[in-house]
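Researcher: Watch the backbone:
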Amino acid sequence: MSYLHKLLSLSLLLTCLNGWAAAHAANGTAPETRIAGPAAELVVPWPPGGGTDSVARAFAQLAAPFTQHAPVVVNRPGASGAIGFQYALTPAPNSKLAMASAEILLLPLQGIGQVQLGQFEPIAQLTNDPLAITVRADAPWQSIEQWLASAQSAPGLSISTAGVGTTHHMAVISLAQATGALLTSVPYQGTAPAVMGVLSGEVHATIAAYAELAHFVEAGKLRTLAVLAKQRIPAIAQVPTLRELGHDLQWSVWRGLALPKGSAPELVQAWQEVAHRVATSPQFASTLQGLSITPAYLDRQRFSARLQAEERAYRALLPHLKPAQ
């Protein structure tokens, strides 16, 4: 499926979701309004077109019946997500939810931007997808073993990431240290442009969630060599994990919702309920699966526990990582 077809599919799916909400309203089965006031902004710290943006738009559509005014997706890319997270904390008459990702943990630990995890109130995790190493279909490497051999033999093999200090960047550094690969990390402003970097030949490879480039693999333009996960991905069951090669590297892209710390308790509770209703609905699961994104709902308590555990892990890892090459 081409990238254009993927975007058209998302548009069609969102149109169907609008119809679903309208049908419920027409039948008198729409839920009572839980969140009143101006339309909330769902802040995406990345450019349009990426996986986080797609998840945000699907969530906003399905959340509409639970709000007085449908949430509005606002893209604020830059500084590896720091600009968007900072914008989400800016006071406004309406509520702002951040589309949170691991960068909300990583950026402050690396001194990038001024946002701290403690400034946010976790609401729920929505998705989780493992990272994958992918090259152009016409690249000379047919396997991860061949690619690693090239990367280990001489410096200069470039690999694009979603930005400095992102999960993708950290994964590249840990990959280089674990395997001895002499990689040059090339940061972009988000996953979508990072994938375009390998498609255009600007870089030799990219590291991104398979979900965010599956359509290019299916179209025969890219080839995924390995996934950084405990188990293989069913959609590409022929592609090995790095763990199978003796490198137990597990990195994933998760996405969730967070409100600014200090938000009214009733607002926090309301968004928790909306997140649960949306994230556990068949419509949300179907929409994400149509985009090759994996639904993975965690409620506030479990999501908060994951954030705390990952922050501890990152703190332990950072001193052992070399600066980006």
Summary: The CA atoms of residues 88 and 312 lie 24 Å apart. Confidence is low (pLDDT under 50) at residues 1-16, 25-29. The radius of gyration is 20 Å.
